[in-house]
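Table S2 (continued). Query chain:
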Amino acid sequence: MNKYLFLLVLFATGLQAQEFSVGLETTYVAMGDIGSIKSSLNDSDTAPTQSWSQLSDDQRKVLSALGGEWDTLRPWQREKMLDIARDYTKMDAEKQLRVQRRLNSWSRMTPYERENARVRFQQFHALSPEKKDELRKKWADYQKLPEADREKLRRSSPELYYDPDID
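Corresponding output:
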């Protein structure tokens, strides 16, 4: 039951998870979803190097959660965030709210948590379509549970992190 709880909690927090078998042991990984994270961690000479003060008012409004740390982000990270800001006005209100919640959550993560999210995201995308479909089915089953049952599952595993602000 705990492996399903882990998967369900991850999805409830806005993260996705997938099963990996390593020898006889099965592990689960979570992945962040702020958009597709660049696979290359190398800084690029062509990446934007705009400081926070050089961003437009609209860009600063969308990316306000990252304002305090913008000037410390790697160029590829800034590029990804600028892509999000550019597409923000094309999103419906629900997606805009999800982006804002995830940016807020991302800004509260430690560098260690962010790196883990990146690694897990990449691991998920390396899985077979069948494994991804299996996980999506488990998530759909979890979503069908009444909220009281979901809360009970979350409380039964206090070792798992759960942030109710993230959908």
